[in-house]
Amino acid sequence: MSTLGDEVGAPGAKTSPTPDWEATADLVVVGSGVAGLTAALRARELGLSVLGVTKAAVSDSNTRWAQGGVAVVDAGTGDSVAGHVADTLAAGGGLCEEDVVRSIVAGGPAAVARLRARGTTFDRADDGTLARTREGGHSAFRVIHAGGDATGAEVQRALAADVGRKRVPVLERHIAVDTLRTSSGDVGGLLLLDPDGAACVVRARAVLLATGGFGQLYQATSNPEIATGDGLALALRAGAVAADLEFVQFHPTVLYTPGARGRCPLVTEAVRGEGAVLVDAGGARVMPGVHPLGDLAPRDVVSAAITRTMADAGADHVYLDASGIGGFARRFPTVHAACARVGVDPAREPIPVAPAAHFACGGVATSPEGRTGVRGLYAAGEIARTGLHGANRLASNSLLEGLVVGERAAEAVAMDLAAGELAPLTRATPGDAAVAPVANRGLLQRLMSRHAAIGRGASGLAVAASRIAAARRDRALDGHGVVEDAALTLLADVLLAVAAERTESRGCHVRADYPQRDDAGWQRSLRVRLDATGAPVVLTPALASGAA
Ligand code: SIN
After folding, report:
1. What is the whole-number distance in angstroms between the Cα of residue 80 and the centre of ligand 1?
2. Per-residue confidence (pLDDT) for residue 425, from 0 to 100
């Protein structure tokens, strides 16, 4: 195995390679959220030389903003893996892969134990056991949390600190532009841009993408500015198949402020888990009669109900009445602080809320161990579609998936290396992604929010597709912003194509023109890949079965 010298830099090092700078490693992990850092740490434990790459700081990722927690069973509380599996399948609208769900859910307790061993501290109940809350779609109190509603921040802190302690080198503020490919199409490294936009190359036996989702494709999102889908675009360009991309989950409750754009503060579902209820401007409850679980229905159901309520009233938000929750500021300090910044006191007045883009249920099609259909390329976390989420992710299953699959992906790389499955170093060369079509980000966000959010229709999807086609221009991928915009442009194309194809409503995919779920025609995932021109091709079921 090759060794990556510490010349690449310890975590936090601000390495600025020259344009022809090169490094080598067994494994390059792109992304510094829960899946990426867990994978990097596990790979290091397995003796691999690992290089982390992140386009922000190692302490920065979508994980950092997660509030609610990690869904994980504690059999001692009367909960069971079977119960968690059943809730995941029910939320997933018939498209989860049951064996994958069982495998990831069953792997949760051990993965959380290892996360705690890495230094993560979860909140405790009065009796000293881990405190557990409920969120939408859960039939049991199984969501563990940290810092009240700052679970992601604590997970991120602990993993980043462990990466530092273990001296796993991380290139911060470097963005991945393209994969290096061997003549047989295997992935053997990455072309990066450094913080100044200079190109550099990392040769690696394996590349693991853990770059998260693409909430920034929409005007309002719970995701940070870095969630631009670069990894997913890179995987598609490398020949990987993606699946379930039409299922963009809208979180029911981000804090509403007039005209808000970009990252909007989340109001965690755990607030409803602890008794808050959704009401309209007149104080009438939103959820009774909509779903047996009422305000704790799965997220797709709640977001759709809020959207209908807003449309009926001609309003752009509803309210969350949390005034019955004692000690709100102590239990939900992050939400409380966000409310305070806009002059709302949740103890006395309802919190204005609206749905916003939150999570990509689909992504690069992978095995539950993070293997894609492209040799040398792996994916874990939100970027990946393992089959856990189906058409709608169950709350707090995302940190769980990142933990479990992050570890398994590192183990899969080690196994594939040992089995001689991966291309040797030095054979790979950069692909031809130096230029790509790019549309204006603001235009993309407006079109996607208007035509590809909750309540899509054939005509709106077609309008969005043709306006994007007319607006895009080929641009050199020579800076961080243009790499992100190219990714968003490609993902808009792909998402619009699969959303138009699925002529039914299911989970997070709500079609105004096809309001019913159609199990006879559509109880299957849509898989998509790019053709030789870079255009998305939706695979027929026969092709798709052999694709990933
Ligand atoms: C939340 O805290 O409501 C979000 C958690 C999640 O997305 O699973």
Report:
1. 21
2. 82
